Amino acid sequence: MAKSHPAAPDWLLLPPNEQQLETGWVGYRHVSGALHWHHASSEESRLSAAIVLPTPVNDDSGITHALEHMVLRGSMRYPEPETFLSLRSELALLEFNASTQKETTRFHLSGYDPNSVLRGIGFFADSILSPQLTQEDFDQEIVRQHDSGYDGAMYREIGEYMRHQSFRASTVQAVNSDLRAALYGGMPDTIPKLDIGMLRRYHSHYYRPDNMLLLTSGSWPMVALWRQMSKALNNVGEPLPVSMEIPNIFADIPLEKDGDRIETLPFSSHWAAALYPTLNALKSQKQLKALGAELLPLTSDFQPVPALRCRVSAQCDKHALERHIDDCCIRLSSRRAMWQTGCFTLQQGRNMVNRWGNGLQRLYHEFSETPFAPPCLQADVCDSLLQQDPKENTPHRHGEWLSPCPPLTRMAILCRSNVRDAETRSSLERWLLLCQQRTLRWAWMKGKPMLGSMREWHCANALVLGYTVDLPERDVVALRHFWHQTLSADEISAVDGEWQHTPQGIVFCCAGSVPVVRTGAIMASHRDDETAMHVTLSFPHTTEAGAMAALGQAVMASSLVQKRRLGGRCYSVAVSLDLMSYELTFDTVADSDPSVSFIALLNAFETLSLPLGEIGFEQACRGGLGLVSARYNKSHARFHRALLNTVGRSVALDFSVVTPTNLAQLATKVLYALKHPTLH
C-alpha cells in the first residue's frame, strides 16, 4: 500500500510491487496522478530535473513546438510574460530551458544552487499546468500577420533554420522517405495555419497531471521540491469538455530533383549505425554514385531512428544497390562493426551533453535503461549486435530513439605556445598528431571506442593547441595510464618548456608563452548582419570577471532588451562570457531590425550607468554566476578548468569585490566604448 510523506501528505511512496529499488530509482506519485522518479543512488552534487509530457503529433503544424513556447509566457502564479527571461538572467543554473522532441516536450534544468533549482522547477510546473495562453501572446510569440508577410518569434525561429542548407535537406529527406516523418517543429507555410484555440484544446488534453513525469537526480531537498510541485498540481481543474482533434496540416516540400526518390534500405537500426561510416567513406561514395545513389544522413531531428537512406535517380537499380550494401555488410569485420556502433553511441551522448549538459545527459540515459521508463524515453539496447540479423525487421518501439550512452568525460593533451612562434607551433601540431595516432591505435586494440578532435584556443599572445578525447568515465583511468606511461616529453625535447601530468591528461607549456596582461580601456566592436546583431566587448584583464558577468546579466534583465524578444521582433537575444579572450558578447538571432536591437542595448547600458538597487544587484550577481557556470560547468567542467588554468584563468569568480557603484562605473565605460567602437 502506498504511504504518504508526513511533511508532504499529497505525495505517496509507490508500493513495493511498483518500485525498482535495485536500479537505484525510487518512485512517488502525487494524488493528482503525477509520477516522480528520483535517482537516489546518484552521487552527483549537481541537481538535475526534467518534467516530461507525452505530446504526440503526426503533421507539420508545429502545434507541440508552439505550445512549448506559449506556456512559458505567463501562468497563474507568474502572469508576466517576461518572467522566464528574467529568471534566466537571475538564477544560478547550468541549464534552464524547454525542448520539443518527436513524441515528448521536456522542461528541464540543472544547477548546484538549491534555491535556484527550486525556483526554476516551481516556475516550470506552474507554467505547464496553468498557462495563460492569450491571443496577444500568441500573436507575439508564435505568428501574426505583418505588412505583406508574417512575424512572431517562433515563425522567425523556423525561418532562420530554413536559411541553413542542412536543415532544408533534412526536411526534404523526412517528407520524401518511404515512411513520411512529421516536421513536428512547424514550417513557414504551416505555422500561420495555427490558432490559439488549437493550442488551448491540445493543452487541455495532454498537459495533465496524470500525464506528467518528473525525473530528478542529485541531493534534492525533497520536501521543498514536492511543495513547489504541489502548488501547481493542487490548482489544476478538470479538462475542458471538448473533443481533441490533432491538426492535419502538412508542408509542401518536393524533392530537389525531378525523378529522384528516397529509398530506405532494410537494415535494423543498430546495423545501420554500424554500416554507415563504411558506406560514407570516399571510396564507397564513389561506388554508390556509379550506381545512381547518394547516401543521406543517418539521423536527423525529424528522423532520430538510425536508418540507411539513399537518394536514388530514376536509372538506379534498387536490387543492385541492395546487393552492394549486402557485400559491404559481409566484408565488415566484427571488430569494426562493434567499434563503429560504439562510436555512434558516444556521438549520441556527446550531442546531448553539448546541448543540455552532463547532468541531464546522465539523467535521461540512466532513466532510459530502467524497466519502468515509458516507451518514448526507453533506450533501444542491443546487447549482441553480432548475433542479430542485420535485416531483422523489428518495429521501432518509439520515435525518440536513444542509444544508451554511459556518462562521458573529456580528457585532453594541451600545449601552450606563443602565437607568433610558427616553428614551435608546427612542432607541437606534429607531436599532437602523433599522440592522436597512438591513442586511436591503443583504443582500437583495446576495443574502447572514443571520440577525438584537434582544437585550438587563443588568449592574448598565447595559443593553446589541444587533442581532446570524449570517452566513457569507466575508461578514463586506462587512457590516463596509457598517456602518462607512453607519451614522453623526450619526443619534443627540442622545444623548451614545462611538462606536467594531470588527472585530465597532459599539459605542456612552452617557454615564453605566458599570456600578457592587457591594460587600458574597454574595446568594442559592432557588426550587423541581415538578420543578426553582434556586439563584442573586450575588457582589460584588470577588470574583475565577476563584474563582467553581472553586467552581462543585468543587460539581459533590462526591459527594452527583453521586449525585443517578447514582441516577436527576433527569435533570441543572448549573452556570452569568454574568460579566455576576456570578452563579453551580445548576439541576436532572426532579428527583424538589428539596428533597433543595438539601440536597445545602448539604452540598457545607459540605464545601468546608475547604481542598481539591492535586489537588482543581487539578481545580477547570481545570474552572473549562472552565466559562467553555463559556459564552463554545464559540460566537461574539469576539462574547462584545466584549459583555463593553462592561461592563468579560473571559473571561481569573486563577487564580493563587485558593488553597485563599480558596476555602474563599468557600464559607463562600456557605453563610451560602444559609442566609439574600435576596429580590432
Structural write-up:
There is one protein chain. By secondary structure, this protein is of the alpha+beta class. It has four domains: 18-233, Metalloenzyme, LuxS/M16 peptidase-like (Cytochrome Bc1 Complex, Chain A, domain 1); 255-354 and 382-406, no CATH class; 409-510, Alpha-Beta Plaits (2-Layer Sandwich); 523-675, Cytochrome Bc1 Complex, Chain A, domain 1 (2-Layer Sandwich). The chain has 21 helices and 22 strands. The protein has an eight-stranded mixed sheet with strand order 1-2-3-4-10-5-7-6, sandwiched between helices. Strands 15-16-14-18-17 form a five-stranded mixed sheet, sandwiched between helices.
In short:
The chain has 680 residues and is α+β, with helices and mostly antiparallel strands. Helices cover 39% and strands 20% of the residues.
- Name the overall outline: globular
CATH homologous superfamily of the largest domain, by name? Answer: Metalloenzyme, LuxS/M16 peptidase-like
Q: Could you give the order of strands across the largest sheet?
A: 1-2-3-4-10-5-7-6
| Unreliable residue stretches | none
How many beta-strand runs? 22
CATH topology of the largest domain: Cytochrome Bc1 Complex, Chain A, domain 1
Give me the secondary-structure category: alpha+beta
Distance between the termini: 69 Å
Number of separate structural domains: 4
Give average pLDDT, whole number: 92
Helix content bin: 25-40%
Percent strand equals: 15-25%
Largest sheet: 8 strands, mixed
| Level-2 CATH architecture of the largest domain | 2-Layer Sandwich
Our Rg estimate from Cα atoms comes to 26 Å
Number of helices: 21
> Given this structure, which CATH class of the largest domain is correct?
Alpha Beta
Protein name: Peptidase insulinase
GO molecular function: metal ion binding
Pfam families: Peptidase_M16
Organism: Enterovibrio norvegicus FF-454
